[in-house]
Design goal:
alpha/beta, Rossmann fold, 6-stranded parallel β-sheet, 13 helices, 19 strands, 18% strand
């Protein structure tokens, strides 16, 4: 069972929601069928899911300002759109979405990279919201997938920046160090750590109230909890910036005095959209295109974050592995449709590919890769947290899961439809839609189609939020 740990008093909860919510927005697959009016995709294209329903997919007129500027995650009508609802998600064998929601993948990008293109774009967008300057001190709070991707993006764009990272688990510290983090902050002595790494001056007042003069120029909070926001506002130097990349679905009581007393800028960031790119120009480019360019040029390596793969049928072990991070050392846990027995995956309509699902564990280069499926891990109550379901639901274009030994999928069950309901929904969506399947290949294949979801996030989305939300990393004090 998937549940949302949130509060109905937060602002997105006031918005109307979609009838159905399908888990899985980090997905790569292959187009197996297109509607009559599809213009930019054809059968056989490899694609990833880029955006949720918006003004373009619903043909709303006039389109809102956000969609007109290419920031589809901020669509002002996403919760009010009429017309057919999307069908399926990353945890489905196929999904039906509008072609505008898809991003075509080049042959230079393998499936392991492609399945993490969306979280890579989340990290790129967060960094470009306030790009560090050369030699600035930068802090990343959280060392999950978004935090480690943010670290990679900063090193690629501003290699002279001094980056510290705050992590919870020893294995996260190992990975952050391998990726070039200059300093590690530990939750137990975080204020002293900021003082040591930045040269700030720490003051302690009544009731153990702490304040720093000096600190980091830029802080990226990939957790977004009450505690991390409170601390980050006090760790930023006067005139500094805190970029809130993580999210919480709870109301908060916070001390916001550093915002005016120290003139701290608190900036929000949601998913991805359009960026000023290349840096220093006035040109505009989609975040997905920038992230894809950085992956293809080997500036960032998101595939190194995949630590475990599971067949969808082994979802219990996948959840246990993702939630028991202290024992499993999980960073990114993915479903791989190539790991399913052939008898489990029925023939997909236009798919001529051979379907041989399997389950393997991806590891870092210095570790030995295991070809066996991960075993179930007992999980203590405090660790067994399941990330909330995103409100994101795909629209008109079907995507089958990869039939190769590398199709990776998120961890959630999609709703089932009767034959009559399915037919009715498909008839409504014929014109502007494409069918995308996640094809599976033989075990000898060197590439694989995957779709993944980071289930170690503290909260990913709420049923009423729009677009694709960035997954928060988790960090407990």
């Amino acid at each position: 069972m998937i549940y949302v740990d949130g509060d109905f008093r937060i602002s997105p909860a006031a918005l109307p929601g979609h009838r159905y919510s399908y888990p899985g927005h980090e997905v790569v697959g292959e187009v197996i069928e297109v509607g009559d009016e599809v213009q930019h995709l054809q059968v056989g294209d490899r694609v990833t899911l880029q955006s949720g329903p918006n003004c373009i997919t619903s043909e709303a007129q006039p389109i809102c300002r956000s969609c007109a500027s290419g920031n589809y995650s901020l669509c002002e009508r996403a919760n009010l759109l009429s017309g057919p609802e999307p069908i399926g998600g990353g945890w489905s064998e196929e999904l039906l979405v509008h072609e505008q929601q898809l991003f075509r993948i080049s042959s230079e990008m393998n499936d392991e990279q492609a399945v993490l293109l969306e979280p890579s774009a989340v990290a790129v967008h967060a960094v470009l919201r306030r790009l560090p300057q050369p030699d600035e001190h930068v802090l990343i709070i959280g060392a999950g997938s978004i935090g480690l991707l943010t670290l990679q993006v900063i090193h690629a764009l501003v290699p002279s920046a001094t980056v510290s990272i705050m992590a919870r688990y020893p294995f996260q510290i190992e990975q952050a160090t391998r990726m070039g983090a200059a300093h590690i902050l530990y939750p137990q002595d975080s204020y002293q750590g900021v003082e040591r790494t930045t040269g700030a001056k720490l003051f302690t007042g009544t009731f153990k109230n702490k304040m720093l003069l000096g600190g980091y120029e830029v802080i990226y909070d990939t957790i977004g909890s009450k505690e991390t926001i409170h601390d980050s506002l006090r760790w930023a130097r006067a005139g500094g910036t805190v970029v809130l990349a993580g999210l919480s679905l709870h109301t908060m009581q916070l001390d916001l005095t550093p915002i005016w007393y120290q003139e701290i800028d608190l900036i929000g960031t949601l998913a991805h959209g359009r960026e000023t790119w290349p840096i220093g120009t006035h040109e505009q480019c989609s975040t997905f295109s920038i992230a894809a360019e950085m992956i293809e040029s080997e500036q960032i390596h998101p595939e190194k974050l995949i630590t475990h793969r599971f067949a969808l049928t082994n979802y219990r072990s996948a959840f246990a592995t993702a939630t028991a991070k202290s024992r499993s050392r999980a960073i990114k846990v993915v479903f791989d449709f190539a790991l399913l027995p052939a008898s489990v995956v029925p023939n997909v309509r236009a798919s001529a590919r051979q379907r041989h699902p399997v389950t393997t564990a991806a590891v870092w280069p210095q570790e030995q890769q295991s070809t066996h499926e991960e075993t179930n891990l007992a999980t203590s109550p405090d660790e067994y947290f399941i990330q909330p379901v995103s409100a994101f639901a795909p629209e008109p274009v079907e995507i089958p899961l990869p039939t190769t030994p590398g199709s990776i999928v998120e961890i959630e069950q999609a709703p089932q439809f009767s034959t009559e309901e399915q037919s009715a929904l498909e008839d409504q969506n014929q014109t502007n839609t494409s069918v995308i399947s996640k094809p599976k290949r033989s075990r000898q294949s060197t590439q694989s189609h995957k779709n993944t979801e980071d289930i170690q996030a503290s909260a990913e989305a709420i049923g009423n939020t729009t677009g694709t939300n960035p997954a928060s990393d988790t960090l407990e004090k």
